[in-house]
Amino acid sequence: MAWKNNERADKLLNILYRGDLNTEEQIKKYLSELEQLIPADDTVRQEKLLTHQCWNHEIDTIAKQELALAFAVTHEAKFQSQAPSVTHTDLLLCKAFFLEYAGQADDALIHYNAAIEEAYKLESPKLIADGLNLRGAMLSYRGEFTPALKDLITAQSIYDDLHLDYWARNNMNQLATSYRRMGDTKTAIQYFKALEKTYNEHENFNEAIESNQQIAFAFEEQGQYQQALVHYQKSYDYWQSKNNLLQRSVTAVHMAGSLLKLNQIKKANKLLNDALLYITINQDNPYSYMQLYFAQIKLLENQPQLALAHIKEAEGAFNLSDNQRGLVELLQIKTTTLAQLALWKQAFEVQSEYVQLHLSLDKKSISKLTTEMRTRFDVDLVEKENRMLIEAQTQKQKMLDTLQENEYLQRIIIMLVALILVIVSIFAYVQLKRKTRFKHLALTDELTKLANRRHCYAKANIYLKNALKHKSPLSVISFDIDHFKWVNDKWGHDIGDKVLIAMADICSKLMRKSDIIGRIGGEEFLVVLPNANREQALEIAERIVTSVAQAQWQHLTPEQPQTISAGVASLTNESSLGQLLLKADQGLYLAKSAGRNCVRQV
User: Fold this and answer.
1) What is the β-pairing status of strands 524-530 and 564-570?
2) Do 432 and 457 belong together in one domain?
3) CA 191 – CA 184 distance, rounded (Å)
4) 25 catalytic, yes or no?
5) What is the pTM of this model?
6) Total domain count for the chain?
7) Average pLDDT per run of 10 along the chain, which is 602 residues long?
8) Considering the domain boundaries, does residue 240 fall inside one?
9) Domain that holds residue 457
10) Taking a C-beta distance cutoff of 8 angstroms, is the pair 34, 14 a contact?
11) How many of the other CB atoms lie within 10 Å of CB of 263?
12) From the candidates 391, 523, 539, 574, which is the catalytic residue?
């Protein structure tokens, strides 16, 4: 009987190890059965059971989250003296996961790093992959894509080698999420749709609905809010059917964000008020966005004081989770709110903070671009193919040495080697062309064909260094399209895109060869004018504003001729591009305040 119990226990432990279970009910059933099967003196199996019990705590309420964290902390401490050991490393990862879920991201990262270090010492592939997967997912959420993708790609390779299909799918989900966050939404949607189908086929319905929600995020980031709402509604209905009120409320917050973009304020407000019953600051990510969306609603209802209270709550939660992307969005709304309250000094300070944070994120985006290009180009695959080619060439050389006495076979081998060289040359040429194309894509705004933000800022920095070195003049013009949101709302995003293209064409024709014009945001543009002093820059800006206002817009927006507002700044005693851009933004703000369709200089 003891032998049969051990055999059954090992079978169940292996199922839990591989993740080959469909529902939480099955997991609970197997854990309960294992508690009965494993005797107290069987320490090896008891420790395996303990780690599975840690990972499978329910966390759908704050009280359950606290219990899960307390369990992990208590049992990890008991095995600390045995470190490094498989049990301690697994419990350390579990503890880090619940710390992250509780909003203690910095502490979680410390424990993830320690657990991964232990896993490498133990030479345990599964634990290494688990640690890299968890750390990569957290780093991806924080916007640190280079280390995140390195972790996730390595974990994917390990899971695939171990044939752990469930965990491989889970890791692939994190990779797809990273692509979405990096801005490659098309690739992300393809991955998520494939994952959703696979999860449904394996009856992993919770994971399938998570993939569906990620598809919604991707559509939202593309500005396709109606399509996003279709997927959000599917997730909302699923969690409602499961009576999981916390997950339903989290989904409701995301739905509210898309509804606000579509100006459906009442529906958004109702969803947020329903979510308010279940979401607390312990769920820092949905809580921060819930408060941010409440602030937007209060601002639209002309209640700036109430909006400011919600902004304060959101700001605290964003800082707690170190969500800089969320903070950028919040600072824009905060600036508008303070301006409505006529708190101009504070509004200016917040606007300056927004610019600084934006510049900081732009610096990170250079690293992100390198990672994205490496992922697209798939350097690892190319390196593997190169090793295979080298091995093939080595084998061919051995064959050549063996068959030297046979002239006929030697000629055949020479021809084969020549063919391989031709193939390698063609392959190298194709890779070079791909690299050149990706570099061009990385520097160009896809819609307008102007320089993108990254390229524009890089060139501007070069011109600034040259101007400082030779004490030559340098000016910039920052401008955006007046009431552009109204164009999108009334005529749709397709007309909005055509307006952007036409705007780029008009302005490009007015530039000198040495000038740089780029699209740095949705409807925001930047012109960099080397060797242009204050008067020349002002003249060019006036010419741009006049040309746009006098252009024929009837075929695009019949009832609304397009205009722009521009701010001009010239180099005086500034030492960085950020300082110069801030002056231009101040000028743009003055132009907006002066009624738009004009130029102001600081």
Assistant:
1) unpaired
2) no
3) 11
4) no
5) 0.47
6) 2
7) 76 82 78 85 87 84 86 90 88 90 87 91 88 91 82 86 84 84 80 85 84 88 88 92 90 90 90 88 82 87 87 80 75 84 82 74 52 44 39 48 59 78 77 66 84 92 93 94 90 92 92 90 93 93 94 88 94 91 94 94 88
8) no
9) 453-601
10) no
11) 10
12) 523
